[in-house]
Design brief:
homodimer, mainly alpha, Arc Repressor Mutant, subunit A, 3-stranded antiparallel sheet, 6 helices, about 55% helix, about 10% strand, disordered N terminus, DNA-binding
DNA sequence: TCAGTATATATGGATATACGCATACATGCC
DNA sequence: GGCATGTATGCGTATATCCATATATACTGA
């Protein structure tokens, strides 16, 4: 299947690739959190989802490699956000999952994490 | 993650499972064809997508095992269709992919396959 | 019953994927 | 520069996933 990164309204990523990427629990949960809350720091995602740091970093790396997320370093902290030009169907799907388990709980835990990290990984 | 089959408006299938399932090219292409054309016979899917019969059967089996499709045997022929009570976001995603490659080509080839199979695997 | 056809499943093998743990790399402060 | 902290990556291992090929199973008609 053809795969091209086109600088247009929507990023063209192989849909099979997208489905496969999000077919992992950690990655799907991270994607839903980013969709709902916007740009997030690795440490916040790690805490909210409750996985080890290397595991989260590795998974975020996968999302980055495929072009699903954009990153920004701020001192020691790296922030990840879904690219705004992703296909609409993907955004809609992530939005639809927001209120379901375990994504809703992740969101709650994220708010705690954000409060704890407030003065450290500033937004 | 909790997985339950609830006889309600929408089937509750673990979204991670869904994404993972559709993260395979053959299965995603089959799902899009079924979404667009409705109930299809294994032979039609096999021809349209251009894979071997055992391969198609295996993949359809995966979809069946998870509860994404319903099957109906008609003599020698087995028809598969997406369950109507799938989550809306999934239907929307499949619909959005319909006009893209390679799904559009699959659809064209399916029409030929349906014409060829008309008198055999009757609908 | 037997032969033909459609479909599902078994088998062995190759490849992909995920993980924990360790560590390399990046940044900031004293 | 040394130390602390956040993040990314290496490494070995276990498991999952996919495939081609062969064959079992199901159905039909003569």
């Amino acid at each position: 299947m053809m795969e091209a990164i086109a600088p247009s309204t929507e990023t063209t990523i192989d849909p099979v690739r997208v489905f496969r990427l999000l077919g992992d629990e950690t990655r799907l949960r991270a994607a839903v959190l980013m969709h709902r809350h916007g740009e997030l720091c690795v440490c916040e995602l790690t805490d909210a989802i409750g996985v080890s740091q290397p595991k989260m970093s590795r998974h975020l790396g996968h999302l980055r490699d495929v072009g699903l997320v954009a990153t920004r370093r701020s001192g020691q902290w790296v922030h990840y956000a879904l690219r705004p030009d992703l296909p609409a169907w993907l955004g809609d799907a992530l939005a639809a999952l927001t209120g379901e388990p375990p994504f809703a709980d992740d969101s709650t835990r994220l708010r705690s994490a954000m409060a704890r990290h407030r003065d450290q990984c500033e937004q």
